Amino acid sequence: MINPGTTPGSGLTRKRPGLPLLASLPSRELSALLTRSGGSPSQAASAAAKVLRHTFRVRPEGLDSPWDQALLRDLGVGAWAHPALLALDARCSLTIAERAPALDGSERLLLATLDGNYVETVLIPAPNRTTVCVSSQVGCARACSFCETGVNGLTRQLDAGEIVDQLRIARLVWGDRLPAIQNVVFMGMGEPFDNLTEVAKATQLLTDDNAFALSRSRVTVSTVGVADKIGPFFESCKAELAVSLNAATDEKRGRIMPVNQRFPLQTLFAELEQHLPRGRRVLFEYVLIGGFNDSPEDARELAKLSARVRSRVNVIPMNPGPDPTLSTPSKSSLDEFVAILVELGVTTLVRRPRGRDVGGACGQLAALRRSR
Ligand code: SF4
């Protein structure tokens, strides 16, 4: 468990070993690197665009083919840029260790990093679009009591390239199936705000027309409420914000989310009120836990709290997790909870947990692999 007085960050954890990943460099950084390597700003920007298009758009297969000079020449990249590009690792940084398709159509992927760690990525088809849920860290320091990932703490940060490579692999697995992949959510393993620099770079690549070309409104980053990073998030990330709330009083929230000791609800909402850009709204996620936070009083408190900023609420009936005292809510308490929110004017959606038959809670597949 973390010391709630500290903010877990890159300084506290091991970095990925090996050559820098090409896939970790958003357009601006790649152009700057190529400018330092002898190109003019316009030559560098043009070469960066060609390289990004080739890496992320043109070749969904052959993710592990290495660079060579002939390939760079074929792309129309001048010889002046070759040494800098050949010093980057252009291979996909992840491989599929395990695929776990669920009966409901979702598919959980266990992906191995080059240094032998594991992260989970989930493909979630819905009637109109398919969503990919990505991880931002190997493990997590935040120790939420309902989450398997938090049990073993944080191992290391993921590089931006390891985050977007989850989408490269997901596209390969999904192929031409419909509906196409159009959404990415940072709701897998890890707390994205504890790795905000790399997450920001990843969102820049996801929304870059030369890379993944997703609309910003289709990329959502979810935090447990690391309130002092809300301002930096809106300055650096091309994404929408989700906040995992899960209780509407400090007393209850503190019992399941240690982050609440450092950033109680008043602090969290003051930061949201200060930094939420005009016209944007926050998605509040509320994991509904039987007998804990599912009473009519809880629903009324949640309605009052969420009304402080432009928002909508996703209610997620809990998946069984590591804490045996937290249980799935009954259907009647779920229905009543949602009815009260709607009656009080809260835009509310119920999100059914997907993939229950293959370890539907975040981190369960990786935990199983570790225990083997
Ligand atoms: S819910 Fe998210 S922040 Fe909390 S322990 Fe799990 S991965 Fe970390």
Q: What would you say this structure looks like, in words?
A:
- With 372 residues, this protein is an alpha/beta fold.
- It folds into 2 domains: 22-86, no CATH class; 100-371, Aldolase class I (TIM Barrel, Alpha-Beta Barrel).
- The protein contains 13 helices and 12 strands.
- It is globular and about 65 Å long.
- The two termini are 23 Å apart.
- Mean pLDDT is 89; it is low at 1-7.
- Bound molecules: iron/sulfur cluster.
- Residues 140, 142-144, 147, 149-150, 189-191, 224, 362 line the site of iron/sulfur cluster (SF4).
Q: How many domains, in number, for the residues? A: 2
Oligomer: single chain
Terminal CA distance: 23 Å
SSE string, helix = H, strand = E?
HHHHEEEEEEHEHEHEHHHEHEHEH
Approximately what portion of the residues adopt beta-strand conformation? 15-25%
Query: Averaging pLDDT over every residue, what do you get?
Result: 89
